[in-house]
Design brief:
Helix 1 packs across helix 8 and helix 2 crosses helix 3. Strand 3, helix 1 and strand 4 form a beta-alpha-beta unit. The chain is an alpha/beta fold. The chain starts with 6 loop residues before the first strand and ends with a helix. Strands 1-2-4-3-5-6-7-8 form an eight-stranded mixed sheet, sandwiched between helices. It has one domain: Alpha/Beta hydrolase fold, catalytic domain (Rossmann fold). It contains nine helices and eight strands.
């Protein structure tokens, strides 16, 4: 993991939860990325995602708040969604304009970018400006064709390992429900523009392809960005893989196109 230059980090809180604030060192920040770190809901932290948050901050000039939330098995579904929704409420309560906030995340917690927006909609709160999800997990039913067609190509996952970690988060809950399997069961109507990035060698590839199709059918602005011959959350290899740097450039462009900074609001 290579963390880019030109950023600074500060431990902080967001609502009741700890968070890591990542900012550019060369000036004030205009927008906010609320980031959900990966780790299958059972591991990981804002520090393990610092290559991703740092690169997004360095490329956009926005600040990122990377949320630390309790993990399974001690804190199973729907704990993570409750914490991310609370973090978003805290941002809004602090006076942050929702049009200046984007959700971003990776792996299982990339799926939280979508399910948190579903919770935002259900709570009657204003939507954030955009979603960016790196290799998101969006189907706890594991019914995507890529779960079998990419077996042996994915260097990180097997159906068995995904089942093991998934069971810790599910804690006996039935996977076929919208907040666990939005790619196959959720109604994404009203969700903000979303960018879904994945690699062709991923077991979870069809989580992104089916979510994109479902969002498109609901009239959501969606970009499905698939890169050949790269693994799960390949963007974390920025500085090593050209494909990772290129994908992060595209993600940063997407964010700057959709997040409305104060200067943009004064000059629409």
């Amino acid at each position: 993991m290579i963390v880019p230059d030109g950023i600074r980090t500060t431990d902080t809180t967001l609502g009741p939860r700890p968070a890591l604030l990542v900012e550019p060192t060369d000036g004030p920040c205009a927008g906010t990325i609320l980031y959900f770190h990966g780790g299958a809901y059972v591991c990981g932290s804002p520090r393990t995602a610092l290559s991703l948050t740092g690169n997004l901050v360095a490329r956009t000039g926005f600040r990122a708040l990377s949320l630390e939330f309790p993990l399974a098995p001690e804190h199973p579904f729907p704990s993570a969604i409750e914490d991310t929704l609370s973090a978003y409420r805290a941002l809004l309560d602090s006076g942050e304009d929702p049009s200046a906030i984007a959700f971003a995340g990776d792996s299982a917690d990339g799926g939280l970018t979508v399910t948190t927006c579903l919770a935002v909609r259900d709570a009657g709160l204003p939507m954030p400006a955009a979603i960016v999800a790196f290799s998101p997990g969006l189907d706890a039913t594991r019914t995507g064709e890529s779960m079998d067609s990419k077996a042996g190509l994915d260097p990180f996952f097997t159906r068995e390992t995904l089942g093991y970690t998934g069971a810790m988060y599910l804690a006996g809950q039935d996977p076929p429900q919208p907040m666990l399997s939005p790619a196959v069961l959720a109604d994404p109507t009203g969700l903000p523009p979303m960018l879904l990035q994945a690699g062709t060698n991923e077991l979870l590839l069809d989580d992104s392809t089916r979510m994109a199709a479902r969002a498109r059918a609901a009239g959501v602005d969606v970009v499905l960005d698939i890169t050949a011959d790269v693994p799960h959350v390949f963007q974390s290899f920025a500085g090593v893989l050209d494909e990772a740097d290129d994908a992060l450039d595209r993600a940063a462009l997407f964010l700057t196109q959709h997040v409305r900074t104060p200067a943009m609001q004064e000059n629409p």
